[in-house]
Automatic annotation (TrEMBL):
It holds the Pfam family FGGY_C. It comes from Micromonospora arida. Residues 293-481 form the Carbohydrate kinase FGGY C-terminal domain. Pathway: Carbohydrate degradation; L-arabinose degradation via L-ribulose; D-xylulose 5-phosphate from L-arabinose (bacterial route): step 2/3. It is an enzyme of class 2 (transferase). GO terms for molecular function: ATP binding; D-ribulokinase activity; ribulokinase activity. InterPro entries: ATPase_NBD, Carb_kinase_FGGY, Carb_kinase_FGGY_CS, FGGY_C, Ribulokinase. This is Ribulokinase.
């Protein structure tokens, strides 16, 4: 055994910060047994239409309240320990993971700018959630300049920086509210900020620094590049740079204040922060090259380790040690998956079939291709391979005979096609993808899982934990606490996966090959310049909304 003797009676806590809530999980160090869990819903959720004080937000904004993150520590962690029935004194470490890129501007001591009274009604002072897509024009400028200057790092990100990442969001703040930008002494990922709250020490994790902060080979983008974007942007790296630590390292010790919040012992190990998708590789026993982990929830993030560095078109990035030490970690993603299915059930499915269960039941009875539809999975933009959040969804082939279950199945299939596009991009660039491990809430949908196996032509393994990210954070906490020498040993001892639960059916896979070819044709036509109608429609919508907000127009009343 690689763990120390007597580890069975020691425990760690993993905290997974999601889009709408935070979950705490108590895990036994010796075997990874999950003993207790609790969830705390964010009080303000996703702030997308107006600030809590009432100020209206423009289109494509998504903010959050950092107090909601502290409340997860105050409520979910003690509740999880209580549910586990363990002595808090036996807890030796805590680790967290977060959505990304979720960032916030703060003062030098870590105080969020939105918590300063004079800036509370300024939207740019708040946390920008990963799904904040209003910085797309700024991302476009960053990408254009990077290619114009032949910046060496742009290829490591598939040729495009996302509107979701640190630089686009930071540039948006500078150009839309320079006072907030100037007041921001630190610009920090929420993953690192909550670790700062736990241990009182500011750190930066190599994962978000690499994937979201454009840190490659020890260097950020140059001051010359930043000032070419905007003369006042040259100090941005100084705002986001900080003590950089590898994954699994100890960021510090739990402070007395954080101990009072959580009910955990003061002084226990606090692990370096991590991203929800990347941390799941450890709980899925997927830290070795070739096994891709797809964390499927509201969106999907795809992560896979490779033995060598390669540039993969349309990827979110490749980072040395970005998933686990000793390998090159690759990331890709889809900005909408579960959100798409949820949108259809909530807003489009008629009464009587307005549930996932009923629609899945009806869709499962269809043969492959029986609905005659192809959908594009861009209802929340495209993260990979096109890296354009102004793109939108599409369904082709509808007739008067089309029924809700047809559309629902087409939406399920569209996300599988998007994942296949990502896998093929990896393989074409020389990054092997041998099989898939699926994690997240969507693993409960057997139809969806079989569709993914058939479309990708690869076996699907299912993570044995319903709380993959939280378990992964707990595994990193065990390493930070010194219970294991590395993430690899901790993953082997504490992670769990059910092997080859779904296998591709040759006949269905052949049928999906034909449909996938049609998906690719639509993907390239509408996503790669064949027809920019989606971008034009987005611009028309934004202009209409902004005009209406300025003139206080109200919708016309229909006279019967």
């Amino acid at each position: 055994m690689n763990r120390v003797d007597g580890a069975d009676d020691r425990y760690v806590v993993g905290v997974d910060y999601g889009t709408l809530s935070g979950r705490a999980l108590v895990v036994r160090v010796g075997d990874g047994a999950e003993l207790g869990t609790a969830v705390h819903e964010y009080g303000d959720g996703v702030i997308s239409t107006a600030l809590p004080g009432g100020r209206t937000l423009p289109p494509d904004w998504a903010l959050q309240n950092p107090q909601d993150y502290r409340d997860v520590l105050r409520y979910a962690v003690p509740a999880a320990v209580s549910a586990a029935g363990v002595d808090p004194a036996a807890v030796v470490g805590i680790g967290i993971d977060f959505t990304a890129c979720t960032v916030l501007p703060t003062l030098a001591d870590g105080t969020p700018l939105c918590e300063t009274p004079e800036l509370r009604d300024r939207p740019h002072a708040w946390v920008k959630l990963w799904k904040h897509h209003a910085a797309q024009p700024h991302a476009d400028r960053i990408n254009a300049l990077a290619h114009e200057r032949a910046e060496p790092w742009i290829g490591r990100y598939g040729g495009k920086i996302s509107a979701e990442w640190q630089y686009a969001k930071g540039l948006q703040i500078l150009e839309e509210d320079p006072e907030v930008y100037d007041r921001a002494e630190r610009f920090i990922e929420a993953a690192d900020w909550i670790v700062w709250q736990l241990c009182g020490t500011e750190t930066r994790n190599v994962c978000t620094a690499g994937y979201k902060g454009i840190l490659q080979d020890g260097h950020y983008p140059s001051e010359g590049f930043l000032t070419a974007l905007n003369p006042n942007f040259g100090d941005f790296v100084a705002k986001l740079d900080g003590p950089l630590l590898p994954l699994g390292a100890r960021a510090g010790s739990l402070t007395a204040q954080a101990a009072a919040w959580t009910g955990l012992p003061e002084g226990i190990a606090v692990a370096v922060g991590n991203v929800d998708a990347h941390v799941t590789a450890a709980s899925a026993q997927a830290v070795q090259p070739g096994r891709l982990v797809a964390i499927m929830g509201t969106s999907t993030c795809h992560v896979v380790n490779g033995a060598e560095v390669a540039e993969v078109a349309g990827m979110c990035g490749v980072v040395d040690g970005g998933i686990s030490p000793g390998a090159w970690g690759y990331e890709a993603g889809q900005s909408g998956v579960g959100d798409i299915f949820g949108w259809f059930v909530e807003h489009a499915a008629p009464a009587g079939v307005d549930s996932h269960e009923r629609l899945t039941e009806l869709a499962a009875s269809q043969p492959v291709g029986g609905h005659g539809l192809i959908a594009l999975d861009w209802w929340n933009g495209n993260r990979s391979l096109l890296v354009n959040h102004d793109l939108s969804g599409m369904i082709v082939g509808m007739t008067l005979a089309t029924r809700p279950a047809d559309i629902y199945r087409a939406l399920l299939e569209s996300t599988a096609y998007g994942t296949r596009m990502i896998i093929e991009a990896f393989v074409d660039a020389g990054v092997p993808v041998n099989d898939l491990v699926i994690a997240g809430g969507l693993t409960n949908n057997a139809l969806l899982m079989q569709i993914y196996a058939d479309v990708t032509r690869r076996p699907l393994n299912i993570i044995a934990s319903a709380q993959g990210p939280a378990l992964g954070s707990a595994i990193h906490a065990a390493v930070a606490a010194g219970e294991f020498p590395s993430i690899h040993e901790a993953s082997q001892a504490m992670g769990r996966v059910h092997e080859a639960v779904y296998r591709p059916d040759p006949e269905r896979a052949r049928a999906y090959d034909a449909l996938y070819a049609e998906y690719r044709a639509l993907h390239d036509h509408f996503g790669r310049g064949g027809n920019d109608v989606m971008l034009r429609l987005r611009a028309i919508r934004n202009a209409a909304v902004e005009t209406a907000a300025t003139t206080h127009e109200t919708p016309l009343e229909v006279v019967a």
